[in-house]
């Protein structure tokens, strides 16, 4: 299904628009992110499921041939070698449908992004106090 032309209010709505096999992949990615970032809130941003913690943390989405994972440029750069087996761009990675999703790698990237966002938020708060 092409979700790009639809509008979603919740992550559940987004996931529900896909066939069951894709829903299972998306639910697995969602659970992995939730476990790695329990403080993060879910929202829809750029019409994709997004986790937010002191700003956007990561996004994910389903496409015809892959699950897109968007940890931002810093998240991709920090795990560049491990992500080299996958297609991607500066801030995104494509996990092909039909191959196992690397949940442990996703969890490590999310934990990295949590630390990064918390550090950025602390620095911003400290600048405000001065």
Explain the layout of strands and helices.
Layout: H1 11-16, H2 20-36, E1 41-45, E2 48-52, E3 56-62, E4 66-70, H3 72-78, H4 80-83, E5 87-89, E6 92-96, H5 103-129
Antiparallel strand pairs: 1-2, 2-3, 3-4, 4-6, 5-6
Helix pairs in contact: 2-5, 3-5
Q: What is the CATH first-level class name?
A: Alpha Beta
Helix content: 40-55%
The CATH topology annotation reads as Aspartate Aminotransferase, domain 1
So, CATH architecture?
A: Alpha-Beta Complex
User: What letter string, H or E per element, gives the SSE order?
Assistant: HHEEEEHHEEH
How many helices? The count is 5
Radius of gyration from CA coordinates: 15 Å
Compute the number of structural domains: 1
Mean pLDDT: 93
Oligomer category: single chain
The biggest sheet amounts to:
6 strands, antiparallel
Percent range for β-strand residues? 15-25%
Describe this structure as you would to a colleague.
The mean pLDDT is 93. The protein has 130 residues and is of the alpha+beta class. It is built from five helices and six strands. It is globular. A six-stranded antiparallel beta sheet has the order 1-2-3-4-6-5. The protein has helices at residues 11-16, 20-36, 72-78, 80-83, 103-129; strands at 41-45, 48-52, 56-62, 66-70, 87-89, 92-96. A hairpin with a 2-residue loop joins strand 1 (41-45) and strand 2 (48-52). It has a single domain, classed as Alpha-Beta Complex (Aspartate Aminotransferase, domain 1), CATH 3.90.1150. Pfam families: DUF1801. Residues 23-114 form the YdhG-like domain. This is YdhG-like domain-containing protein.
